[in-house]
Amino acid sequence: MKKNVGSVDRVLRIVLGVVIVALGLYYQSWWGVLGIIPLFTASISSCPLYMPFGISTCKTKETEK
Fold first, then answer.
1. pTM of this structure
2. Position 1 in a domain
3. What confidence score (pLDDT) does residue 50 get?
4. Cα separation of the two ends of the chain
């Protein structure tokens, strides 16, 4: 898979994933399992939902002229 998740996006996904999992554990709800999704996409640096739209939050190297 092509990487399309930048460093700031990764940090936000990790924080969001941990918060969702923690709230799920606190409230004893299965909804906390959904926190695995942002944690997984952050760990592989790729978001399948970004691909069809051509979105990428990775920094790109500018070509020298």
1. 0.85
2. no
3. 93
4. 30
Determine how many CB atoms are found less than 10 A away from the CB of residue 13: 20
- Rounded Cα distance, 32 and 46, in Å: 21
Query: Is the separation of the CB atoms in 30 and 24 below 8 Å?
Result: yes
Whether residue 18 lies inside any domain: the answer is: yes
Tokens of 44: 């592989």
Residue 25 · residue 32 · CB < 8 Å: yes
57 band by pLDDT with thresholds 50, 70 and 90: very high
- Asked if residues 40 and 1 have their Cβ atoms less than 8 Å apart, the reply is no
- How many structural domains does the chain have? 1
